[in-house]
Amino acid sequence: MTTFEALGIDARLIQATDELGYVNPTPIQEQAIPVLLSGTRDFIGLAQTGTGKTAAFGLPLLHVINAAAKHPQALVVCPTRELCLQIVKEIELFKKYLPGVSVVAVYGGASIGLQIRDLKRGVQIVVATPGRLIDLIERKAIDLEKIQYVVLDEADEMLNMGFQDDIEFILKNTPARESTWLFSATMPPEIRKVSRKYMKEPKEVTVGKVNMANKSIDHQYYVTSAQHRYETLKRIIDFNPGIYGIIFTRTKVDAQEITERLTREGYDIDALHGDLTQVQRDRVMGQFRDKSLQLLIATDVAARGIDVSGITHVINYELPDDVEVYTHRSGRTGRAGNHGICISIVHSKELYKLKQIERINQSQFHKLDIPTGKDVCRKQFFHFMDKLLSADISHGDYETYVPMLAEKFAEISKEEVLKRVAAMEFDRFLKYYENSEDLNIRDRGRNDAGRRDDRSQNTGRGDGRKTYTRGGGYAKLFVNLGSKDGFYKASFLQFILDMSDLRKDVLGKIDMRDMNSWVEIEKSAAQQMIRSLDGKSYKGRRIRMNDADSGGPGGFQRRSKGKE
Ligand code: AMP
After folding, report:
1. Within 10 A of 194 (CB to CB), how many other CB atoms are there?
2. How many Å lie between the centroid of ligand 1 and the Cα of residue 69?
3. What is the signed CA dihedral for 243, 249, 254, 255, rounded to 10 degrees?
4. Does domain 465-560 have CATH number 3.40.50.11320?
5. Class of the domain covering 217-370
6. What's the 336 CA to ligand 1 centre distance in angstroms?
7. Residue 53: CB within 6 Å of ligand 1?
8. What gap in Å lies between CA 73 and CA 143, rounded to an integer?
9. What is the pTM of this model?
10. How many C-beta atoms surround the C-beta of residue 375 within 10 A?
11. How far apart (Å, rounded) are the C-alpha atoms in residues 425 and 376?
12. Position 469 pLDDT exceeds 80
């Protein structure tokens, strides 16, 4: 195994990494550091977060900059404030024995005046988010003329977040750039394009496989129906009493709503989404980092760049559409050699997405049964007993109470005491799960609605899916849900499909207004859609759905009653 010495790094940097407990370089460090130390070679490192890539570029940067020159020489651009601070924190640790080297973080959502003051102090390394950096360039508060090294960290995330123009602007405006070091977990074509345009024969290094998920992550999934998604989530949380995790939702409305429900039910949880102010965001992240929050619910955009160590579980409340988004979500756990679990709650219609992720990420998913109420209670019980046994009784004055306790419990056996402690802790819990239902979707063929719907040329298939023959034309359905309910077209479409167990290809145009929407659907599938939604509730409001062409609200209901 190579050592940091053998890679040619300054001894003062090695002293710092020694103190941090780094014994050997990680694979990306081993391959990147010798190239980057030259300072003149462009470099592309394809590596996931958690592989040690901050040190892979941080150590060479500190090695190549000139500590005596007090102007910005290196620019690290990364997608988020959190990552920006994380990078600066690590560089600060590495430069412990390098006098005269300064590094500063500049990012949005904080006072630009203070950051301008910091920049004027004569820093050599600037770590920046793209938006704030452009702002500083336009205010002429930062001089890029003498920047020799540009590092693009998590380049794919920056492009995902729409920073492509900003990155190109930065690369165009660094005329003295001697080398560009690009790090990314994946290699979408846009990054390839940027690298062709702005880099010279970069040395490309891949750690593991591109897009390959981290091997230390166990990918698990549970299959349930749309209406049991929330209950399944709760059960997963309850079944993992020591969980410290992030739950991902597609929309901020979902994030907010689930947080509110879980908080009401006594869970330590808060939400991170785009509507929060920077102060609120900092408060939530602070609480999560110091573990006063056990769970964080986040949307993808809000969670970009989050790097919190020790996350045990990532839960996909719904699967993302993009394989890359799945990779980024799951990459929040299983970091720095730790084991992590990524759980997805899926509907049977989404199983094909798992196959896609498996194929591209070359990882394997494990299907698990959703725990029964009994499983959950048993798990909680043993967790509590473990906690009881490992309670620290070395402090405090417990000894003085022992004679009194002995007297008080003289008539009761040890078993009885244990039972009573358990009852105190679990009574509510046991009651909650007493008659809990099985949330798993078992292979039991079609549901009743499907079988009854024989008028609709429904060709039930053995794989639990339904196909509808085309040709009957479209019906237009009215529904009293709209954008005021927090829906976008895509989330609305997903919602009605999940509720009805129908496939996307039966739908035509969707016309969404504030309060109502109109859905075109193949006639053969219309009744199933109506039966599945009409009369159900959404956020406490009763859903009304009917055939828009049958004489207004209520018309369809009357007709369908007459027929059945
Ligand atoms: P990163 O991929 O840069 O986010 O690094 C992930 C974690 O690995 C960080 O907590 C680093 O401190 C740690 N780390 C980086 N390099 C090494 C190393 N050579 N040995 C041990 N830990 C490391």
Report:
1. 20
2. 29
3. 50
4. no
5. alpha beta
6. 6
7. yes
8. 10
9. 0.51
10. 15
11. 14
12. no
